[in-house]
Specification:
Layout: H1 6-15, H2 21-52, H3 61-108, H4 118-138, H5 140-158, H6 162-186, H7 190-214, H8 216-221, H9 225-277, H10 284-294, H11 298-325, E1 344-352, E2 362-371, E3 376-380, H12 387-394, E4 402-407, E5 410-411, H13 417-423, E6 424-427, H14 438-443, H15 451-460, H16 464-468, H17 487-501, E7 505-509, H18 517-529, E8 535-539, H19 543-546, E9 551-554
Parallel strand pairs: 3-8, 3-9, 6-7, 7-8
Antiparallel strand pairs: 1-2, 1-4, 4-5
Helix pairs in contact: 1-11, 2-3, 2-5, 2-10, 3-4, 3-11, 4-7, 4-11, 5-6, 5-10, 5-11, 6-9, 6-11, 7-9, 7-11, 9-10, 9-11, 15-17
Length: about 575
């Protein structure tokens, strides 16, 4: 995770507010007016006491009472308006950030997401982004309000005597800025690191819980429930220790802040009393400035409290920015000349997941392969020899380290990504099914597919009769991760998707591995007879599957030759 300072994270997050600047200004105005109303209720109360004691006041008791009532109502209305604006801004920006994150994930997929903890990604998308609501709803406007409010109150208190105004300024700066900075300095990077550690550990716990739920049947089968629970409790306890440390720091800061406020209140009373004894101010100049200072620390305290609450927020923002700033392994192409499929090839392709200089294993070394249009090409070889990787390179999920991959005699780096996806149908070894109906899972391959097209694709994949045997037919839900279906049924639905996409190049990775011999024969017959002139690259360990290939290549591991033969 990239380390960014709190100011860097704050600047990036504030930059997103630009489209909603008008609402932010309105929130600041209403918040400032509301705090002034709250303070002057107390100040007017002090004036009323002076009036009852017989001092000459500019306002009558009736006027003061009416003003207090109006200010009380306005305080409630303005507070509601401020919070409404802040939360409107927050929720709009959270939607914007989620959209940016999903776009970033789409850009990073699949290369940069393979091997990433899915639970941790879910934590970023949900809890981390949700935590940014604190920043947008309770941070930006309070900072602006605190600054403007401090200026106004210092001028008001200073109107009784400049020294009193300077003391008020010192008090606000100490509570709102000096104390948070000093406590942050004393804790060094510990508090910031604790916030980052808390978000990271929280993400790891989410991943562990998700992993535990997915593997629940295996956990029960092998009697590992107590062990898994103990690991979960250990992670939870570790997270609680970090949270306790953060809360202890927040509590300490709050205690120091409240103590300093009392000291400044007492200082204001003593200083104004000294001025009164010297005849510089009257009794009003003692009571009103003291009451005004006493009742006006709200914005400064809110500013001080941000120091402790923002550590988690900045850590969450940092994790979100990591995703937004991460560069994809392969940049999408657009604006190039349209390409029509007319065969494919790989020439002297070498590839590794990572840099060989960093110790990454070389998967493919100077591999060459020609795929003529309209033929079925079989790829066989031991596990780990690079067969599946070769298909992914044709999909351009990664770029080759050296050599080139071409379609229609054009380097795929020069082909529009949209054209490439339209020309290719890729069926992986594990067919992913969304928690939705069979029909909607199939339509992922072609969103505007008619029911007739869906049925035709399923017939080719030998899965139509099975679907019609279900109570709701094509509208039958498949359950989370397709867990209501067998491996073979999921595989046939994956093949139906590939047929429905209707691309000229079919890349099939072990399409019959979970099928019995009868269903395998039916599907292979469909591939040979109903492929409508399509080109097929077929990866399989089964000799019975590979027999339908027009040409077969053996991918050998690097310990042998590292080439196709």
């Amino acid at each position: 995770m990239k380390r960014r300072s709190g100011f860097a994270v704050m600047a990036r997050l504030i930059g997103l507010v630009k489209p909603l600047t008008g609402f932010m200004i309105l929130a600041v105005i209403m918040g400032l007016a509301g705090h002034l109303c709250a303070s002057f209720i107390t100040i007017l109360g002090g004036n009323a006491v002076l009036g009852l004691l017989g001092f000459d006041m500019a306002l009558s008791l009736k006027t003061i009472s009416a003003c207090v009532l109006v200010f009380a109502v306005m305080r409630a209305v303005l507070r509601y308006g401020e919070q409404s604006c802040n939360h409107f801004i927050a929720f709009k920006l959270l939607a914007l950030i989620r959209d940016k994150v999903f776009r970033a994930l789409r850009r990073l997929a699949p290369a940069k997401l393979e091997g990433r903890d899915k639970g941790d990604l879910i934590s970023v998308i949900t809890s981390d982004i949700e935590l940014l609501e604190v920043f947008y709803a309770h941070t930006i406007s309070p900072i602006a309000i605190a600054f403007l409010y401090t200026v106004i109150m210092c001028l008001f208190i200073g109107s009784f005597h400049p020294v009193l105004g300077l003391l008020a300024l010192l008090a606000y700066l100490t509570v709102g800025a000096a104390i948070p900075l000093i406590t942050s300095k004393l804790s060094g990077r510990g508090e910031s690191a604790a916030g980052a550690e808390f978000r990271a550990e929280s993400g790891e716990l989410s991943g562990f819980v998700l992993d535990s739920l997915r593997g629940l049947s295996e956990t029960i089968q092998y009697g590992r429930g107590e062990e898994r629970l103990a690991q979960m409790n250990k992670r939870t306890d570790a997270l609680s220790v970090i949270e306790m440390r953060l809360k202890r720091t927040a509590g300490r800061n709050m205690a120091v802040t409240n103590t300093v406020i009392l000291i400044f209140d007492l200082g204001m009373l003593l200083l104004s009393a000294m001025l009164y004894q010297e005849g510089i101010v009257d009794y009003t100049g003692v009571l009103v400035p003291t009451i005004a200072l006493f009742s006006s620390f709200g914005p400064a305290v809110a500013l001080a409290n941000l120091g402790s609450t923002l550590q988690n927020t900045f850590a969450a923002g940092n994790r979100v920015l990591d995703i937004l700033d991460e560069m994809p392994a392969v940049e999408e192409e657009a604006g190039k000349k349209e390409t029509v499929f007319d065969g494919a090839c790989a020439e002297n392709v070498s590839f590794s997941y990572g840099r060989p200089s960093d110790g990454a294993e070389v998967i493919l070394d100077r591999v060459s392969l020609r795929i003529p249009k309209g033929q079925i090409i079989g790829l066989v070889g031991k596990s780990g020899s690079g067969k599946s990787t070769l298909l992914k390179l044709f999909m351009r999920f990664w770029d080759v380290r050296s050599g080139k991959v071409e379609i229609s005699d054009r380097n795929i780096k020069e082909i529009n990504t949209a054209d490439l996806r339209n020309m290719e149908s890729f069926m992986t070894q594990e067919t992913y099914l969304f928690h939705d109906s069979i029909r909607n899972n199939l339509r992922i391959a072609k969103l505007d597919a008619s029911d007739g097209e869906i049925e035709a694709a399923c017939r080719k994949a030998s899965v139509h009769d099975f679907i019609m045997s279900l109570p709701e037919g094509y509208d039958t839900p498949v359950g989370e991760l397709g867990d209501t279906l067998s491996g073979g049924e999921r595989q046939r639905l994956g093949l139906a998707r590939a047929f429905l996409h209707d691309a000229p190049l079919l890349l099939l990775d072990e399409p019959t591995s979970n099928l019995d011999s009868l269903n395998e024969a039916v599907i292979l017959k469909s591939l040979r007879e109903e492929r409508d002139g399509k080109t097929v690259v077929l990866v399989s360990h089964r000799q019975s599957t590979i027999r339908i290939a027009d040409n077969t290549y053996k991918v050998e591991s690097l310990s042998q030759t590292g080439r196709l033969s």
